[in-house]
Amino acid sequence: MGPVLLCLAVAAAAVCAASSGAPASPGAPAGAVGSCPTNRFLLNCTSNKTLIGIPPAQYQVINISLDDGLLFVNKPSNLGDIITTPTVANDSHDFDFSGSQGIWRWAVTNETCHTARTEASYACVSSNSLCVDISTGYHCKCRLGFEGNAYIEDGCQDLDECVVPNFCNGTCVNTLGSFWCSSCPRGSIFDPHKRVCIYGNGLHLAGLILFVQRWRRHMQRKIRREYFRKNKGLLLEQLMSSDENVAHDPKIFSLEELEKATDNFHSTRILGCGGHGTVYKGILSDQRVVAIKKSRIVEQNEIDQFINEVAILSQIVHRNVVKLFGCCLESEVPLLVYEFISNGTLYDLLHGEQSTTFSLTWEDSIRISLEVASALSYLHSAASIPIFHRDVKSANILLNDNYTSKVSDFGASRSISIDETRVVTIVQGTFGYLDPEYFHTCQLTEKSDVYSFGVILVEILLRKKPILVNCFSEQQNLGHYFLQTLQDGRIMEIVDPQVVKQANESEINEMASLAEICL
Question: Where does this protein hold ATP (predicted)?
């Protein structure tokens, strides 16, 4: 039997002895007849493999964790997927076979630590051991600062913390079960790379390293302050503090926080890319899952849109509008931190890959339409200052775990005071959703958002994109195509078959009439 199998056998012997109440010996042969009170702990080491269980339900032992009370096994390949509940466990819930390896969560007995300590068979016999209560009984482990086998006499030995990574920035002195630090002797300095106190030339080198590190940190702080100024951080802070309409104070995150949350903006964290930037999934230090929007282009108008989005979203509290947690102004491009919405966009659900894996029911369609209408109504009429979104489209409607809709992307939005002119110099929006009047007059009203909402209703009815290819292989505006077909009295011919199957004709006509009014 090889050394690995021997280690497993000795460990298992300790467990076996603990369950029988007899002290274990490192030399005791695991699985020896009479050494265990139950076949659950018998190990067979006769075939160059360590096996546990009764044939044919035998499993190869891969590892044993005494501290955690876990035994890891592989399922024999010749058994295929036949065996689902191993005979080595008392109850099926003790055994997890969902992964590539089986994990048996074992306990010494089904007693609590309080009860077991009063009995002669108490298994935690090492002087530096602890008893741990678990749902199925108890098991033993070594105290903090010790390592080894808690089931045998003197099995828990002192851990030398000075030879493993620690937080000592000086001379490390190991003690029984712990350690302590002393400062470096006079004339020496702590080398953070070698983690020792050094003298002489090494001292000068360490001094140079510390100087360079401090200089880099200083320059990094200077650069981040400059970015903060360029990204109008002072203006935003002043805006947030003076605006009486601010419903909640967005947090200004440090770049270091968001780098840590996204693994330095690793490519595997990308949720999506749009015209204005990239969105990353992040996990903050308080375990909140967030979506972090990073602007793509470093231009003043992009920064202005960014500041505008923060100002707009800080005024909004609505269950169907995406929540802004805060922003970061210390990077070259500004960052926005939103609540994470897990199920993508309505556009994906209607036209993308999600449309093949999830079928949007007619009831869901009605509910999502009502939620979006509720959010737009709030923005236009109930917010402290009327807000026009200016880029309402299915790609800007996010869906959470329950497929509740959240209107997002307020970069192009405008808040309108009563006496403010509604003429804008630049038409913003997405082709296929643009209000034709707004496109020609640049006159900004809530009707522009209503027109875009009408296009979304048509998307839901027809399951076609806002710019479609007609029967003549020509690109055509979905809104115009819908209105023309409706005028010809052929609306039921173009409605999506799934909608026709789930909704009756009067319901379809009602939504079509509403879409017509919006358009």
Answer: 294
Which residues lie across from 130 on neighbouring strands? 141
Binding-site positions? 294
Question: Pick the catalytic residue: 191, 348, 391, 409?
Answer: 391
**In the chain, what are the domain boundaries?**
3-127, 233-339, 346-518
Buried b (16+ CB within 10 A) or exposed e, 18-41: bbbeeebeeebebbeeebbeeebb
> d(Cα 409, Cα 72) in Å, to the nearest integer?
48
| Confidence label for 78 from pLDDT (cuts 50, 70 and 90) | very low
- At CA 140, angle to CA 18 and CA 159, rounded to 5? 120
**Torsions phi, psi for 405 (to 5 deg):** -85, 150
C-alpha to C-alpha distance for 280 and 35, rounded to whole angstroms = 57
**CATH for 233-339, among 3.40.50.2300, 1.10.10.60, 3.30.200.20, 1.10.3720.10?**
3.30.200.20
Beta bridge partners of 414: 388
**Superfamily in which the 346-518 domain is placed by CATH:** Transferase(Phosphotransferase) domain 1 (1.10.510.10)
Contacts of residue 384, defined as CB under 8 A and 6 or more positions apart, other chains included, come to 245, 247, 315
Please state, in angstroms and as integers, the Cα–Cα distance from residue 155 to each residue in 24, 128, 150, following that order: 10, 8, 5
- pLDDT tens track for 381-409: 877 778 888 889 999 999 998 899 999 88
Q: Could you report the per-residue pLDDT of 412-430, keeping only the tens digit for each?
A: 566 554 445 444 445 567 8
Dihedral of CA 84/88/92/93: which sign? negative
| Amino acid type, 297 | I
Residue at token pair 């947030």 = 240
Closest to 396 (Cα-Cα) out of 347, 463, 340: 347
> Is there a catalytic annotation at residue 391?
yes
